Amino acid sequence: MREIEIGEFADAWAAGAPVVDVREPWEYRNAHVPGAQLLPLGQLGDRVTEIPAGAVEYVICASGNRSVQGARILMTVGRPAVSVAGGTSGWAAAGRLLDTGDGGSCAHR
């Protein structure tokens, strides 16, 4: 399973790569990467069909622990996935854009 740093993830995100946030809904509402799809880790295996097939999924959490597990879950069902080291905390610390709420709006990339 591959894990990437925030800088490499930022490039992929800017290019439109799909992002799955595996945190809990309250965490997601507080702050998330714009455009990230919320699929809590505990539900990911049952909801994997909600993720469009094909592209590499970038899996993110708060700090990088749950995203490793989430990427492994996706890979076991044949989906290409990468874990984002540092998670949303690292994204925020790098001064990157964040959205709040349920994700209805998406900030400019």
Summarize the structure in words.
The protein has 109 residues and is α/β, with parallel strands linked by helices. It is built from 5 helices and 5 strands. Helix 2 links the parallel strand 2 (19-21) and strand 3. The model is unreliable at 104-109 (pLDDT under 50).
Main features:
disordered C terminus; Oxidized Rhodanese, domain 1; five-stranded parallel β-sheet; alpha/beta; 109 residues
The protein's oligomeric status is single chain
Radius of gyration: 12 Å
Question: Distance between the terminal alpha carbons, to the nearest Å?
Answer: 27 Å
Q: What letter string, H or E per element, gives the SSE order?
A: EHEHEHEHEH
Strand residue percentage: 5-15%
CATH superfamily: Rhodanese-like domain
Write the topology of this structure.
Elements: E1 2-4, H1 6-14, E2 19-21, H2 25-30, E3 37-38, H3 41-47, E4 57-60, H4 65-76, E5 81-84, H5 87-93
Parallel strand pairs: 1-5, 2-3, 2-4, 4-5
GO molecular function: thiosulfate-cyanide sulfurtransferase activity
Organism: Rhodococcus opacus
Protein name: Rhodanese-like domain-containing protein
Q: What is the structure about, briefly put?
A:
It comes from Rhodococcus opacus. InterPro entries: GlpE_sulfurtransferase (IPR050229), Rhodanese-like_dom (IPR001763), Rhodanese-like_dom_sf (IPR036873), Thiosulphate_STrfase_CS (IPR001307). This protein is of the alpha/beta class and 109 residues long.
